[in-house]
Amino acid sequence: MELRQLRYFASVAREGSINKAARSHGLAQPALTKQLQRLEEELGVTLFERQPRGMTLTAAGTQFLQDVTRALDDLEAARQRAVDAAVGRLGHLAIGLTILHQLLPAVAEILRRFRQQSPDVSVSVRQVISGPQIDLIRAGELDAGFLYFRPADDPAFDGLLISTQQLALAVPDEPQWTDNPPRRLADLNGRDFLWIPRQVTAYYHDRLIAHFHGAGFMPKVVMEGTDNNSLLTLVTAGMGCAILPEQAAAQDIPSVKFLKLDDLDLRLPLELVWRRDNRSPITQRLIELTRQCVAEA
């Protein structure tokens, strides 16, 4: 049983005429008649009653038409899904995002547009800080991620700059911090400092530590957090101060003050990062959409 025979059969059933069906398929009538005969022989049933004015379906033909119609519809749907998957309109996308990045309008706009343009793509978002995102992208567990400081010397990754973020000093809203606020990084020497361990996000950690040392600041780390949000929680509890991306201030926590330091001028490059050998149409669709949003910003 060939697919073309099923299509010929459905056309004759719809048209009620071999002549009309043959013309619609660009065939001679004898050729289409021969295909129908072969189909009936293979099935072992008669599908049509030949009438002087056309073709009518037998009981077997009526049932077969219902099944063939469903099969052809399913086949067309499968073909369309394959086309959609090939151009990134269907499938799954796994994205990495830090807790603070979800507060950025630029990231929210990219995700909103992607959803609008690719409603049939399922999207999962994992809240992971920058360093672990790199590991997950490398392992193929994330297709792409919004993160800071990708390893620029690693040829396995590519990235698209979305924006640069300013850093700020988060301090408890207490007199010991607010009556004589620090103005420079060196003013933090000897003060209780909250930090993220290097093994959690090495690239981010190393860039900031190098900047601190260049400014004459040697952090006295009294407590550690696993991400920027946990650091902010510790500041809220009065445990010390922390360097955080400026968008952390958008959470507007009454017990925390955000200060700008004169020499805290290292800006965080927020990028969409992906593995260079990732040829997924869905990932490429996200990259192109991000490029458009950046160009419009």
TrEMBL record:
Task: Please give the PANTHER family that the UniProt record associates with this protein.
Answer: HTH-TYPE TRANSCRIPTIONAL REGULATOR CYNR (PTHR30346:SF28), TRANSCRIPTIONAL DUAL REGULATOR HCAR-RELATED (PTHR30346)
The cross-references to InterPro entries, in alphabetical order and at most eight, read: LysR_HTH_N, LysR_subst-bd, WH-like_DNA-bd_sf, WH_DNA-bd_sf
Question: What Pfam families does UniProt report for this protein, alphabetically?
Answer: HTH_1, LysR_substrate
Gene3D superfamilies xref list? Periplasmic binding protein-like II (3.40.190.10), Winged helix-like DNA-binding domain superfamily/Winged helix DNA-binding domain (1.10.10.10)
Q: Which organism was this protein described from?
A: Cupriavidus pampae
Task: Output the lineage of the source organism.
Answer: Bacteria, Pseudomonadati, Pseudomonadota, Betaproteobacteria, Burkholderiales
Q: Please report the stretch or stretches of sequence annotated as the HTH lysR-type domain.
A: 1-58
The alphabetical list of record keywords is:
DNA-binding, Transcription, Transcription regulation
Recorded superkingdom: Bacteria
Family to which this protein belongs: Belongs to the LysR transcriptional regulatory family.
Name of the protein described by the UniProt record: HTH-type transcriptional regulator TfdS
